[in-house]
Write a structure and sequence with these properties.
By secondary structure, the protein is an alpha+beta fold. The chain contains 6 helices and 7 strands. Helix 2 crosses helix 3 and helix 2 packs across helix 4.
Length: about 230
C-alpha cells in the first residue's frame, strides 16, 4: 500500500464506523459455542418429542377410525337383528300388523336417529307418537323383548310395564312372558291380577291392621294343592 495515496479522512471515518458497530454488538460471549450446542441439543430433543406426539396423534386417529368402522358394522348387524325380532314380537303381541325401525337420514350411520313405525291390525302404518297409550306401551314392550331375545339373560326384571295395558293386552303380554320362561326367569312388579296369575311365586305387602304393613308370599302350586 502506498501511504501517500491513501485517503486518510475516509479511512478515519470508516474506522469510527467500525468501532461504533463493534461497540453496538456489546461484549463477546465466550460461552456462545457451548450455549449454541446446548440449544441445538434441546431443539433436537423437542423436535423428536414433537414427532413422537404427532405419530401418537396419527395412531390415535387411525384407531378411532377403525373403532368407528367396526361400530358401524356391528350397529348395522345388530339393528337388522333387532328389527327382524321386533316385527315378530309385535305381530305376536298384537296378533297381526307390522312394525319396524327406520334410520333417519344421516351421512354417518353412527349419527343417525331411529324412528319407530308401527301398524296395529286394522290401522294405517304410522309413527309411534300417533298411537294410543296402550299401543305405545305394547310397542315398547315388543322392542324391549326384541333386544332381549338376541342375547337372553338368566333373569329379567320388569317393573309395572303392564300398567298402561287393558285386560286384552295384558293377556297377550302374559302369554309372551310364559313363552320365554323356558330359558329365563322373570321377576315382575305389578298390580295387575291377570299378570299375577301367571307367576309361580307371589310376594306382596298387605295391611291386615291399619297402619301395620306385612309381607306375604304365596307359592301357587302349594295353594292349588291346598284348594284341591
Amino acid at each position: 500500500m502506498d501511504p501517500e495515496s491513501l485517503d486518510r479522512q475516509a479511512m478515519s471515518s470508516e474506522s469510527s464506523s467500525l468501532k461504533q458497530r463493534i461497540n453496538a454488538m456489546g461484549y463477546v460471549n465466550l460461552g456462545a459455542p457451548e450455549e449454541y450446542e446446548a440449544l441445538m441439543e434441546r431443539t433436537g430433543f423437542l423436535s423428536n418429542q414433537s414427532e413422537d406426539l404427532q405419530q401418537a396423534v396419527d395412531d390415535l386417529k387411525q384407531t378411532i377410525r377403525d373403532i368407528n368402522n367396526e361400530s358401524r358394522k356391528r350397529f348395522r348387524e345388530m339393528f337388522d337383528q333387532v328389527n327382524l325380532r321386533f316385527n315378530k314380537v309385535f305381530t305376536t303381541l298384537f296378533e297381526g300388523g307390522e312394525a319396524r325401525m327406520v334410520l333417519t337420514e344421516s351421512e354417518d350411520l353412527l349419527d343417525a336417529g331411529i324412528d319407530i313405525v308401527a301398524q296395529p291390525p286394522g290401522k294405517k302404518l304410522q309413527n309411534l307418537n300417533l298411537l294410543s297409550g296402550g299401543e305405545k306401551a305394547l310397542t315398547a314392550i315388543s322392542l324391549i323383548f326384541a333386544i332381549f331375545l338376541i342375547k337372553p339373560s338368566p333373569f329379567c326384571l320388569l317393573d309395572e310395564v303392564d300398567a298402561p295395558l287393558d285386560d286384552v293386552n295384558v293377556v297377550r303380554f302374559t302369554k309372551l312372558i310364559k313363552s320365554l320362561t323356558e330359558n329365563s326367569q322373570f321377576i315382575v312388579i305389578t298390580h295387575n291380577k291377570k299378570t299375577m296369575e301367571i307367576g309361580h311365586l307371589l310376594y306382596g305387602v298387605t295391611m291386615e291392621n291399619p297402619g301395620i304393613s306385612k309381607t306375604v308370599s304365596v307359592q301357587f302350586q302349594d295353594a292349588e294343592r291346598m284348594i284341591a
